[in-house]
């Protein structure tokens, strides 16, 4: 009998130990880093020790660094986009990675559906505006600094850098090289025409969300996470107490406070494009970083900010982040009326704040959005 009991104990004890191992309460680990030229905020809920948690937080940052370095950057010589831009006009066909092939495939869809309001070939015009030199604050909500009497310079975090307004002639010339329908992207091959330059700035952070989601799914010990890359946010899984994720939407008229929150459960991608994120003011005129690809000028559709919300579908496509980011840019350019239609076409929820402070949203958005008092 004693022997029999001993045997049972031998089985029960390890099973109990195992159980306490699996029922270990998830703990929240947080980090703030800079990657892809923006601030990455991570909160992950994980049932493991601190060391493992730190490894996962680091893995997320490496994943973003690799995306920039290998695929998306127009500035780093090591990236595919850089090499494709370099070869524009050479007649040479370049074979893309499966990641970039998929990205451009999806970008073409948003380009077509938005009648070119979102255009991944806007590079030649974006370079003239020198957007990347404009100030951005650590929250990712870059606040351009007002420059006194300036036509030549713009203040940045580092100091004052050169800012020269592009002339109408320069813009007109650059615009001849813009147009997703002329990009000669066919499946996995691309052969850009002379002067055309890819610019994936409007989808980079959304792509980050899709790739990070894939990475988190490989880690069973992660039960929930909120990852933000500038104006794009991924919610993943759940919190230990089962409460909803609350994602703040910045008030575009007062960026230090929220206009309201989105209350969400599970996997979602949220992207906001606003005229307050990156801009420069010259002689009282605000020039922001979302361009109308038809005019080459900062978009002027009467919109101050647009937030797009897409549920992370249970598919192997992982394009929800990319679409939310692309659509936020496209909707900003299109304005409220056409933007709402575009969002609905993609099954996305949208919330617009116009220049008068009016709030417009898709019907489905109403159940998630709660206005601040
Ligand atoms: P952020 O990157 O601040 O979140 P967006 O997602 O709206 O803002 O993307 C803006 C960036 O995308 C610009 O810095 C520029 O490189 C590029 N861009 C600007 N206008 C367009 C457009 N209409 N279509 C595609 N890309 C654009
Ligand atoms: Mg965008």
What do you see in this structure?
Helix 8 runs antiparallel to helix 9 (336-345). This protein is α+β, with helices and mostly antiparallel strands. It has helices at residues 2-22, 50-72, 80-86, 98-113, 123-129, 168-175, 204-217, 320-334, 336-345, and strands at 27-35, 38-46, 94-95, 153-156, 159-162, 185-186, 189-190, 222-229, 232-237, 245-251, 254-264, 268-274, 279-282, 285-288, 303-311, 349-354, 359-361, 369-371. The chain binds adenosine-5'-diphosphate and magnesium ion.
Name every ligand kind in the structure.
adenosine-5'-diphosphate, magnesium ion
Terminal residue distance: 70 Å
Largest sheet: 8 strands, antiparallel
| Topology order in helix (H) and strand (E) letters | HEEHHEHHEEHEEHEEEEEEEEHHEEE
Q: What's the rounded overall pLDDT mean?
A: 88
Order of strands in the sheet with most strands: 1-2-8-9-12-15-16-17
Count of discrete alpha- or pi-helical segments spanning 4 or more residues: 9
The level of helicity is 25-40%
Shape descriptor reads globular
Task: Name the poorly predicted regions.
Answer: 8-22, 136-160
SSE class: alpha+beta
Oligomer: single chain
**CA-atom Rg in angstroms:** 23 Å
Please give the number of β-strands.
18
In percent terms, what proportion of residues is strand? 25-35%
């Amino acid at each position: 009998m004693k022997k029999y009991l001993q045997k049972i104990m031998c089985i029960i004890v390890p099973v109990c130990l195992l159980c306490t191992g699996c029922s270990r309460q998830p703990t929240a680990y947080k980090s703030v880093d800079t990657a892809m030229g923006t601030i990455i905020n991570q909160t992950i809920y994980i049932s493991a020790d601190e060391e493992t948690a730190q490894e996962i937080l680091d893995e997320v940052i490496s994943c973003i660094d690799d995306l920039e370095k290998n695929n998306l950057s127009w500035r780093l010589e090591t990236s595919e986009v850089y090499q494709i831009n370099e070869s524009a006009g050479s007649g040479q066909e370049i074979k893309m990675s499966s990641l970039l092939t998929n990205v451009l495939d999806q970008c073409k869809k948003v380009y077509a559906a938005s009648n070119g309001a979102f255009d991944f070939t806007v590079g030649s015009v974006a370079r003239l505006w020198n957007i990347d030199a404009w100030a951005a604050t650590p929250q990712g909500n870059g606040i351009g600094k007002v420059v006194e009497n300036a036509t030549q310079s713009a203040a940045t975090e580092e100091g004052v850098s050169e800012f020269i307004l592009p002339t109408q002639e320069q813009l007109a010339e650059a615009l001849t090289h813009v147009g997703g329908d002329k990009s000669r992207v066919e499946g996995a091959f691309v052969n850009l025409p002379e002067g055309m330059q890819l610019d994936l700035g409007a989808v980079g952070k959304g792509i980050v969300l899709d790739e990070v989601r894939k990475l988190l799914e490989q880690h069973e010990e992660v039960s929930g996470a909120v990852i933000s890359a500038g104006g794009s946010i991924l919610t993943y899984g759940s919190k230990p107490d089962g409460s909803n994720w609350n994602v703040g939407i910045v008030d575009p008229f007062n960026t230090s406070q929220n206009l309201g929150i989105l209350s969400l459960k599970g996997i979602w991608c949220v992207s906001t494009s606003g005229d307050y994120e990156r801009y420069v003011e010259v002689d009282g005129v605000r020039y922001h970083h979302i361009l109308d690809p038809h005019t080459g000028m900062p978009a002027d559709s009467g919109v101050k900010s647009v937030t797009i919300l897409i549920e992370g579908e249970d598919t192997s496509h992982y394009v929800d982040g990319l679409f939310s980011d692309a659509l936020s840019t496209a909707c900003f350019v299109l304005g409220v009326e056409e933007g709402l239609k575009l969002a609905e076409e993609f099954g996305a929820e949208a919330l617009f704040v116009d220049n008068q402070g009016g709030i417009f949203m898709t019907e489905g958005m109403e159940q998630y959005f709660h206005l601040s008092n």
